[in-house]
Amino acid sequence: MAFNVQALDALERAIEQGVSKVQYEDKTVTYRSLEEMMRLRSVMRQELGLASPHLSVLSSHSKGFDQPPDE
Question: pTM of the predicted model, to two decimals?
Answer without folding.
Answer: 0.66
